[in-house]
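User: Let's play a game. I give you a shape written as tokens, and you guess the letters that built it. Ready? Here's round one.
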């Protein structure tokens, strides 16, 4: 049975869990070939096996990479090209969140967020653009956050990176729209993944929150819009959060 994304090739960073995994599953379900990357080899391998079991080995690739390292990103993009021959869709989802007051936030934690959330996104876009420009339907999704519009106590480092993601995404869109590359910054609010909590059992514990598959559905909807149309930013939030 054919899908809406047959013959498309996608790369999802941070694709071994949470939002990234949900997006990878959605793209595969619609017929795309999908490469996922992550830093944790065991988690990445488990995710790839689950995806391949459902969608077949031929359309799934897992490449271990730390997007905060330029050499890793170069090897990642080269690996995608070698495996699938090109690239049509880049989903920059890899992210780190440390939530402390500025006084408590340590320099190493600050740089970890900057290097992954912002520099990693730049590295992936910069290295992928030559392949994307060869595509007839190139699309970059940068997964930002409502933390890129609204500051919060304890979010200084994370806010700084996500505000940067919003500005970077808009500039990227303006730079490369005439190259046929569409760019959308997706800005979720509270997503039920346990992000930012060392205890991953907290994932899927809050049914009022956005679910990862909701973000995946949004990405698919935007992908299927006519090529002449671009939603450059989209804010997604829980419809009924708990009353304060």
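Assistant: Ready! My guess for every position:
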């Amino acid at each position: 049975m054919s899908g809406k994304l047959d013959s498309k090739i996608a790369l999802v960073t941070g694709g071994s869990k949470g939002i990234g995994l949900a997006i990878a599953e959605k793209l595969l379900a619609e017929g795309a070939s999908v490469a996922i990357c992550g830093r944790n080899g065991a988690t990445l391998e488990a995710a790839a096996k689950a995806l391949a079991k459902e969608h077949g080995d031929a359309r799934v690739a897992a490449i271990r990479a730390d997007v905060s390292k330029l050499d890793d990103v170069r090897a990642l993009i080269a690996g995608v090209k070698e495996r699938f021959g090109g690239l049509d869709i880049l989903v920059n989802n890899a992210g780190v969140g440390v939530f402390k007051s500025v006084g408590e936030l340590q320099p190493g934690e600050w740089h970890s967020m900057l290097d992954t959330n912002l520099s990693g996104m730049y590295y992936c876009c910069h290295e992928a653009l030559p392949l994307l420009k060869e595509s007839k339907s190139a699309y970059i999704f940068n997964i930002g956050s409502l933390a890129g519009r609204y500051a919060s106590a304890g979010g200084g480092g994370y806010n700084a990176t996500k505000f940067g993601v919003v500005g970077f995404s808009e500039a990227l869109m303006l730079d490369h729209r005439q190259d046929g590359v569409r760019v959308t910054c997706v800005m979720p609010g509270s997503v039920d993944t346990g992000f930012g909590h060392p205890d991953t059992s907290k994932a899927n514990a809050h049914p009022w929150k956005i679910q990862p598959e909701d973000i995946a559905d949004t990405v698919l909807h935007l992908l299927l819009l006519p090529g002449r149309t671009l939603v450059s930013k989209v804010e997604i939030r829980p419809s009924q959060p708990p009353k304060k």
